[in-house]
Amino acid sequence: MIITPAILETDPEELKRKVSLIESGTDLLQIDVGDGKFIPTVTVLPRALDDFRPLTAFEVHLMVQRPDRFIADWAHLGATKAIFHIEAEGDVERFIAQCRDLDCDVGVALNPGTSMEDVQPYLDLVDEVMFMGVTPGAQGNPYNPEVEKAIAEFHQAFPAMPLAIDGGVTEKNLTTLHNLGVMRACVGSALWMSANPIVTLEKLRLL
To answer: What is the pLDDT of residues 33-76, one digit of tens each?
Structure first.
């Protein structure tokens, strides 16, 4: 199982601190982006980070109403992948084309309760489908076990599509999720609420 550390922050200095702490232990980071509309949290924006660039590759999880208004600034800061929500506004195919023009890979995320039929028209255009294990908005939101049924059904219908999960991932459910077909887990609170995020990250990878 690939474990990707996820960082959701409103403070630029705290985001930098977490990146510096964890980047030596991973090949990929996820920076969560919120606009105060799609989710209630307004996160750090690229302009607040000046010329800061993580030493490792990073993707952005765009939990925003209009992802097309955010991706260019993050791509110019170095993001190599954009994950957008199917529930967001805007032209999906145009946004995917925008990401490709910026040399970004693309993933599509589904909130709990969203039908997999909503993403089917775009499966040939994206690199990954990400299921949310929580209602997005803040790290630490409670895990919704119904996501496991949705993942199992999707994997049975589209076995070749790479699957990821974001939210609520712990030592207790990681093996189950992997057995259901999940290839990658984005982990936030399980890392940042632990005494040693690097040790916890390695422990999760070994499960």
So the answer is: 999 999 999 999 999 998 788 889 999 999 999 999 999 999 99
Burial 175-199 (b: 16+ CB within 10 A, else e): eebbebbbebbbbbbbbbeeeebee
Q: How many other CB atoms sit within 10 Å of the CB of residue 98?
A: 19
Query: Integer distance in angstroms from the first to the last C-alpha of the chain?
Result: 8
- Report, in angstroms and rounded to the nearest whole number, the Rg of the chain calculated over CA atoms: 16
C-alpha distances in angstroms, 57 versus 5, 38, 108, 112, 136? 12, 25, 19, 28, 23
Domain hosting 22: range is 2-206
Domains in the chain, number:
1
> Domain of 105: which CATH number?
3.20.20.70
pTM of the predicted protein model: 0.96
Give the number of residues written for the chain. Answer: 207
Q: What distance in Å separates the CA atoms of residue 52 and residue 141, rounded to the nearest whole number?
A: 29
pLDDT at 192: 96
Q: Report yes or no: 73 and 43 within 8 Å, Cβ to Cβ.
A: no
Q: What is the pLDDT of residues 67-123, one digit of tens each?
A: 999 999 999 999 999 999 999 999 999 999 999 999 999 999 999 999 999 999 999
3-class secondary structure, 94: helix
Name the E strands within the chain: 2-7, 28-34, 57-63, 81-85, 105-110, 128-132, 163-166, 184-187
